[in-house]
Amino acid sequence: MDNLEQTFNEIVAKYRERLYWHIRSLVCSHEDADDVLQDCFVKIWKALPGFRGDSEFFTWAWRIATNEALNFLHKQKVRAALSFESLRTTLENRIDEDPWFDGDALQRDLAKAIVGLPEKQRLVFQMRYFEELSYEQISEITGTSVGALKASYHIAYEKIREKLKLSSL
After folding, report:
1. Where do the domains of the chain lie, and which CATH numbers do they carry?
2. Which residues are within 8 A (CB) of 112 and not within 5 positions of it... i.e. 6 or more apart?
3. What CA–CA distance (Å, rounded) separates 100 from 81?
4. 61, 63, 132, 163: which could join 113 in a potential S-S bond, CB 3.0 to 4.6 Å?
5. pTM of the full predicted structure?
């Protein structure tokens, strides 16, 4: 085994689980998350020789995973539009039908409130709230200013809070 292959195997071992859950939080399906994760690691493998270390490896890999998940969602959005269904409805249905979802009703309502957010707000909320990334890390991943990320997070938080209030009535 050459050095690059060994490095790649170490990367997969170290980041597989965290990247899976990051992708899963965006695509809302175990099967889709597995497929996107494989695509993500293929991209990482192909790009690994060109990684220059201008950013942390973690944020570089996270950016690839995020882009792969967003590309997948854009394709799903087109498919949903062709079937006259919204992507939000598709994702909410996946949450309801997911045999791997083990949360209670409140967690299900939270997941549905999150998928109802605009893409950028949902992404920022997921990375900040669940993955506990710093605004600086999210900025590096998304290419968005820290101030804009803070505003997006706050707006997302308020929308989710309002949605959960309404669903508990």
Report:
1. 1-85 (1.10.1740.10), 103-169 (1.10.10.10)
2. 92, 95
3. 27
4. 163
5. 0.70
